[in-house]
Amino acid sequence: MRVRSSSPPLTSEGAKQAYTLDVTSPESLWMQLREGSRFFKEEGALHSTLSGLTAKLADEGIDYAVIDGIALLTHGYRRYTEDLDILTTRAGLGRFRGRLVGRGYRPAFPGAQKSYRDTETNVRIDFIMAGEYPGDGKPKPVSFPDPAEARLNKDGIWFITLEKLVELKLASGLSAPHRLKDLADIVELIVSRALSRDLAGKLDESVRTEYLRLWDAAQARPAE
């Protein structure tokens, strides 16, 4: 669902510090498996980062909504993710940079403008701007909304609404071949939440046909 972007490769030192899985290291593998288990219990580095960041955004008066992986979990599909995706406005990002970068957060790589890391947990935080376009980043009928207009509050944290999450993921998967997992996420959401076929009527016309196609496919999936 992210806007298409490129990040410079990590240096060897950065790779050691990154909150990612090193499959060549058995110790790292078990650490990641333990972290994954804690993730589904809403514990661990990712949830600690989420709690701390959203509290600070609220304190600074920055409108935001949590999207993508963590939002999927909130809406009923348990998929592991390693980073946070935060929808905000350009003014909100500017305030984050001015007030919080250097005070618990640092750029994820030299020159980063929208990607940061928590200095304690090293979890990556990617900001997406209202008005940008999902998937390939090119203009389309569906764009990232103002977070204040498409969010719901759960346990004091603002998350993107289910309808808008579905709409954005459909638009992303349809426009970017490297984002096909966004379409797979919709199938899993349909199954795990028993989403109605009628939800299509609440989505932008440009993605309705794809939602209906995926809904039909989900009904044909063998029971587990």
Q: How many angstroms does the end-to-end distance come to? A: 27 Å
Q: What is the gyration radius calculated from CA atoms?
A: 18 Å
Q: Report the average pLDDT across residues.
A: 86
Q: Total number of β-strand segments? A: 7
Largest sheet: 5 strands, mixed
Low-confidence stretches: 5-26
Tell me the number of helical segments per DSSP (H or I, 4 or more residues long): 8
* H/E element sequence: HHHEHEHEEEEEHHH
Residues in β-strands, percent: 5-15%
**Judging from the principal axes of the Cα atoms, what is the shape?**
globular
Fraction of residues in helices?
Answer: 40-55%
Structural class determined from secondary elements: alpha+beta
Strand order of the largest sheet: 1-2-5-4-3
3D architecture notes:
The chain is of the alpha+beta class and 224 residues long. The protein has helices spanning 12-17, 26-40, 44-59, 69-74, 90-99, 162-175, 180-193, 205-219; strands spanning 64-67, 84-88, 105-107, 115-118, 124-129, 151-154, 157-160. The protein has a 5-stranded mixed sheet with strand order 1-2-5-4-3. It is built from 8 helices and 7 strands.
